[in-house]
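Sharing a chain and its predicted structure for anyone who wants a worked example. Both blocks are below, sequence first, tokens second.
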Amino acid sequence: MNTLGALGNGTTALDSVPQPVSGGMVFQAITTGNGSGRQTCAINSAGTAYCWGADGKGQVGNGPPFSAELTPSAVLVAGTWTQIAAGAFFSCGVRTSGAAFCWGEDSFGQLGNGAPKALTDQPSAVIGGLLFTQVAPGQVHTCGLSGGAAYCWGANLNGRLGQDTVTTSESLTPLAVTGGLTFSSLVSGESFSCGLTAGGVAYCWGYNASGQLGNGSTDNATTPTPVAGGISFASISGGTDYACGVTSAGQAYCWGDNSLGQLGDGTIFQRETPTPISQP
């Protein structure tokens, strides 16, 4: 869908074949909005962050007005970035210094700036003095990786902050995920998050009605729970209500919601444990 310029090619027309993003830049990383935010963000070869597409909540990060950007627009923080990720109606990134910034909608504290919950149209620093290597925004929560430890902030509905409790409804600042696990990478889906250890073990927490935690049940988890099957993953990724992982041998597995065939196993049946993608 390109009605708000998510393709970044200067138009709002639909395209059924790949079109170059305007500006002629070379990008080293790119991310698309999680859910219905419809923004795209990227870091170019010089380390500058750009976003384009929907900006009704300030998720492009280039200041007012809140209007769609049809071509890449520089995020309003000087300096270089090492990582960027787009959430539902907000975006986050990590600077070369390790400082994390978020911008856009903040109705549940998902920007992590400790301020009253109001949207911001340009990057706002995540407070707490932590240095991050990665941030992973979801729908109304964000998780980040600092020194191998996972921290989350924003809404805690269904345990998505990993706090071993649902009595904490939300947090405006980063909270350490319960369990003391060390992760090499993090991903977030719409209402859950997953971490991957250096040994390739995947853990997930949060909402689980579609089996997106991959632990063999549909019960929500307030703390990291291992993905079933004993599979060693080289990488993982999170979708709306599903997740996928790839082993070092190149075998792909997915789990969770499959109503539109997003798990690639040749069916439309929900999977609560990792299921191999069908080979052609």
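Comments welcome. The chain has a mean pLDDT of 93.
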